[in-house]
């Protein structure tokens, strides 16, 4: 008998640590983490294992992306998790309703001042989407990617003058989405300034839904 699918989304503003949380969920619960860039290359370019992402069926739930998104897909026919970054608007949430019924929504609440600092210090490797933060997750060599040695860039919307506008836009768009999921009783909010302090609570929540393959201490 097939395992019951758990459909969940991770929500949070830019810089809130959605990608980090999803990577930890992937390791802890035996899922595979795919970045939005990889998802788009595989689904639009025709490469890769298309049975893994983007197709409806027993293996996983289809996922829609935006520029902040990444995806967690089942590495075995167990329990897929979609997100983070989608849905960011009420319209996207209603579109997702037409695809599947969510069981769980994780919302990351980070103070905006913390987010401003994080985003302004963020640099990325364009080809892979790997993200570095010059304050707490710098590259081994300043200005270059750890794996390829290629130059890092700062996105235009991560520049200090653009960050405040991005956060205001997210707050306005996300409020009705969060209220929608709260009204359905599936919203679980986690607040803090550090992912390492938020993560144990996320792990405990998911452990009540999915059998973990790693203990929290193994991270």
UniProtKB/TrEMBL annotation:
Annotated transmembrane regions: none
Keywords annotated in UniProt: Kinase, Nucleotide-binding, Transferase
SUPFAM superfamilies per UniProt: P-loop containing nucleoside triphosphate hydrolases
Domain of life: Eukaryota
GO molecular function: AMP kinase activity; ATP binding
Protein family (similarity comment): Belongs to the adenylate kinase family.
Protein name per its UniProtKB record: KAD4 kinase
Species of the source: Platysteira castanea
